[in-house]
Design brief:
Elements lengths: L10 H5 L7 H15 L9 H16 L1 H15 L8 H4 L17 H9 L20 E7 L1 H6 L1 E12 L5 E12 L8 E4 L15 E7 L6 E3 L2 E8 L1 H6 L1 E5 L6 E5 L8 E4 L12 E7 L7 H13 L12
Parallel strand pairs: 1-5, 7-11
Antiparallel strand pairs: 2-3, 4-5, 6-7, 8-9, 10-11
Helix pairs in contact: 2-3, 3-4
Length: 320
């Protein structure tokens, strides 16, 4: 669903109701205006445009999740913030059978049957209410790298828009048990079956879809299924080669540094990235850290190194 224009009337103004109107008041306003401006009965020259605006307002406000997203958009506007709808706004395409589109998406003849009784729209006898599955709900969840490396069981807390006893939309906190499979990546979704919007007429409830974001790790960087990290070396380790202890997600291992290793060289540890078929790899990105030159002996050591390599020019690649 696209965000409405900043200069257009709000959906509340279109329906002629207050921003704290109950869901019943939203529905009554929609039915009253839909009768007035439906193109099959209205003689107003702008009836089609008015009816479309009324239908769009009803679609946005009659569903608690959409209404919560729309209210959040209005609040951002009031604070002078840019129009960037939250993920839930774009994550609720129309036509998923949650009841929000029950009146808006129907044919004109169905509309009249619903509004005025069977047979008034030319569609014949009234049909029995069909079972409609509930809509899927969407959210985001941030997990640690350790969670995706080994898998985990987590309890998540979500604020879900619901209609209260007074008919107004509010947020209700829910706690759900969640299994995080090993190897899941950022951008993938976890599906909790039956935890979405309830169905209508005996229809099954929708699902809850959580989009995964993996939090940054203090050591390892994630690139698809591969991991990388910076491995500092002493100058003599890089020049002469060495066998050093290095961290991996699975624990410390011995890593052989080839002689003459330059900064930026990547050493691959196969299969030590994210689990999968195949598993990702781990890359150690080599760097060189210079020891300090604070004492006379330390300065003398650097001087001896300079004397040992009289022809060495580190800026030769620059043409200097």
């Amino acid at each position: 669903m696209d965000a409405p224009s900043r200069h257009a009337p709000t959906h509340y103004a279109t329906l002629g109701i207050a921003a704290d109107a109950t869901q019943a008041q939203v529905k009554r306003a929609w039915r009253k205006l839909a009768r007035q401006f439906h193109p099959d009965v209205s003689k107003e020259p702008d009836a089609v445009a008015r009816f479309q605006a009324i239908a769009a307002a009803h679609t946005a406000l009659i569903d608690p999740e959409r209404r919560a997203a729309y209210d959040a958009l209005l609040q951002r506007r009031a604070r002078g913030e840019p129009d960037e709808p939250p993920p839930a706004w774009a994550g609720r395409p129309p036509g998923h059978g949650d009841g929000a589109e029950q009146d808006d998406g129907m044919a004109f003849s169905d509309f009249f049957d619903t509004m005025f009784g069977p047979g008034q729209g030319g569609a014949g006898p009234r049909r029995r209410t069909r079972a409609r599955p509930g809509a899927d709900q969407h959210g985001n969840i941030r997990i640690s790298l350790d969670d995706t490396l080994a898998g985990a069981q987590r309890q998540v807390t979500l604020d879900v828009p619901v209609v209260g006893a007074d008919g107004r939309v509010g947020l209700q906190r829910r706690q759900l048990d969640l299994r995080i499979p090993a190897g899941i990546r950022s951008g993938q979704q976890l599906r909790l079956a039956g935890q979405g919007r309830p169905g209508q007429g005996g229809g099954a409830a929708g699902d809850l879809l959580l989009t995964v974001e993996i939090a940054p790790h203090p050591v390892f960087r994630l690139d698809g299924r591969d991991l990388s990290f910076d491995l500092p070396l002493a100058p003599w380790e890089a020049a002469l080669g060495a066998s050093i202890d290095t961290p991996t997600p699975q624990g410390m291992v011995h890593l052989q540094i080839p002689p003459g290793s330059a900064p930026g060289r990547r050493l691959r540890l196969k299969g030590r990235g994210l689990p999968g078929q195949p598993a990702g790899d781990l890359y150690a990105v080599l760097g060189i850290r210079l020891p300090p030159a604070a004492t006379a002996d330390e300065q003398g050591a650097y001087g001896a190194m300079a004397a040992a390599f009289p022809g060495f020019n580190p800026r030769q690649v620059l043409g200097a």
